[in-house]
Amino acid sequence: MAGDRAGSRVASDDPGAVPDEALARAVQGGDRDALEQLVRRYLRPVHAVAASFQIAPEEVEDVAQETFLRALGAIDRYDPRRPFAPWLYQIARNLARSRFAVRARWRLEPFPSGGMEASDPTPDVAAERSELRARVEAELARLPEQRRTAFRLVDVDAMTTEEAARIMGVAPGTVRSHLHHARMALRKALAEHLEVSQDVGG
Amino acid sequence: MNDDRMDGEGAEAREPVLPDPVPRRWLPDALPPDDDPAWDPYVARILAASEPGLARFAATIGDEAAPWWSEMGKWWRPAALAAAATAALLLVVERPAGPSVPPETVALTLIASEGDPVALWGMLGVRADPVLALLAFEEHDGFPDDSPSSIHPPGGETR
User: What is the rounded distance in angstroms from the CA atom of residue B46 to the CA atom of residue B40?
Assistant: First the structure.
């Protein structure tokens, strides 16, 4: 899945697409279609950013919706000469961060991410996978925010490092650096399982 | 928890070779692709919630675009109509013939007010003699404390 980039269609990767900034300018004039294009373009990345903060799925939805509403409320102060994606990302990040802080304050366990796949062969395998996912979630929760977000966008939601970089407003090399540290941390935490996995796979 | 020290050129300069990712099945579930219909309800909800904001922007833009003389143009017709209607009403409607207060109940405070005594009496419907009207007012100052609180018109008659 990590190599599958088909699901990702971030922003102005399509050269024929109307640039984000032009759409944002149209939204400043009350253009509903332009807003819809921006929402469709960024709903998935905004969800991914919110999900990287490991908040409850319903909170992810709330953050995503609130991000667009806040962006609309502040669109008259948005400068179209500046890139739109990092501006939106910053709003999502701030909203998700406050929810994440509440979770951290109460020392809540990370939320399990989704259910078991239907193809799980046995209950034992399903249980092991569930446990591993929980360990991955716990390890991700310990990562610095930028590393966690880069990991979520690239390794979980299959964006390219360039797409993640544009959303996060950093250089692609920076995203790769964050990704490197995140993968190293996860591999270290799951070393014993990785060995078994490689043994089984090899 | 936040560590942004890796941002920027320093991190890029030390760009490492990426280690292999951990097995996908251990990771959280990925979000649906952009074009998945699962996103449609979210888009609809956000757009519905955005309507008031969009309407506000559209209204603001409309207000900013209209020059002052254009706004005047919108209002001069209703204003002219209202003025014409008011003038017609003033012409058509009969003015009241004056108060029908019996002269004997006129309070002393009223006739003690300044002004032309004849006109004052006339306002009450009394055609007063100019000299007597003036005398009546002058006499008013000399009324004793136990004088009645009303007077009779000075040598005139009620209309």
Answer: 10
Q: At what angle do helices A84-105 and A32-51 cross, to 10 degrees?
A: 40
Structure pTM? 0.61
Nearest-CA distance from A96 to chain B in Å?
13
State the average pLDDT for chain A.
Answer: 82
Q: Which residue has the higher pLDDT, B65 or A161?
A: A161
CATH of the domain at A167: 1.10.1740.10
pLDDT, position A121: 58
The shortest CB-CB distance from B47 to any of A1, A39, A157 is to: A39
Nearest in space to B39 (alpha carbons), one of A124, A74, A163, A36: A36
Which residue would you say has higher pLDDT here, A39 or B124?
A39
Contact B133, B154 (CB under 8 A): yes
Q: Per-residue pLDDT for B70 more than 90?
A: no
- Amino acid, single-letter form, for residue A152: R
The chain B residue lying nearest A197, using CA atoms, is B23
Domain ranges for chain B: 37-92, 103-158
- Cα separation, A151 vs A53, whole angstroms: 11
Return the H-helix or E-strand segment holding B124.
Answer: none
